[in-house]
Amino acid sequence: MRELFSDELKKLHGRFMEMGINISEQIYQATSAFTQYDKKLAQQVIDDDQRTNSEEIFLEKEALKLIALQQPVASDFREIISILKASSDLERIGDHAVNIARETLNTSDQKNDVKIEKQIGKMAGDIRKMLEQVMDAYVNRDERQARKGAEKDLNIDQQYIDIRKAVTSAIESQETTAERGSSYLMIDRLLERIGDHIVNLCEWVVYNQSGKIVELNAGKISPELLQN
């Protein structure tokens, strides 16, 4: 019975990791579609979102089934709960990627700002690295790595502020249009929110290993308040 439970838990863990890999690719595709004005790729991101939603539902059902039928010991229970909660954050990250893709479909490539788009690309790349680090922390059951990953969100917040300032300046100097600038601000905000969800993932790694529910970066001031 215990061996069967271990096998099912490994399968659950594997599916969760696969979901994380797919979400990382979604972020890449969505931001690439935006900066390259690739509406076909943007539509693909939107179409693929159903797979993400289905995967979250599957993980939720399997996690609850394991809890109900197997009555896991404390450490296994924490692992199941952390996957259950973290899969919800992954799904929300996927939703933000879809919103980036939708913005791509709604805007034109008129009067774009190459410098700002390069900043957006870097921010997206750093977010993917942050996500990959926390997924590695899940695999390695590494609380320290998760805590270090959460600290990187402070850099994401700074990039968010820098991009907002750059967009405001570009609109004022008419280097880009108000319409395009509005799109930049929306993408910037969506990426910042993705960073916050990744911090949540880090917190669930800490819970999995320590049994403690923590708020990482608890003293962080909202970037909305810092930007001025």
Strand element count: 0
User: What overall geometry do the principal axes of the alpha carbons give?
Assistant: elongated
Q: What is the CATH top level name?
A: Mainly Alpha
Overall tally of domains:
1
Rounded to the nearest angstrom, the distance between the terminal CA atoms is 59 Å
Number of helical stretches of at least 4 residues: 8
Biggest β-sheet: count, sense, barrel? Answer: none
Helix-strand string: HHHHHHHH
Organism: Amylolactobacillus amylotrophicus DSM 20534
Keywords: Cytoplasm, Phosphate transport, Transport
Protein name: Phosphate-specific transport system accessory protein PhoU
Function: Plays a role in the regulation of phosphate uptake.
Write a compact overview of the structure shown.
85% of the residues lie in helices and 0% in strands. By secondary structure, it is mainly α.
Structural account:
Its main location: cytoplasm. It is a single chain. By secondary structure, this protein is mainly alpha-helical. It has a single domain, classed as Methane Monooxygenase Hydroxylase, Chain G, domain 1, CATH 1.20.58.220. Helices cover 85% and strands 0% of the residues. It contains 8 helices and no strands. It has helices at residues 2-36, 39-70, 74-106, 114-140, 143-151, 153-172, 178-210, 223-226. The radius of gyration is 19 Å and the shape is elongated. The N and C termini lie far apart (59 Å).
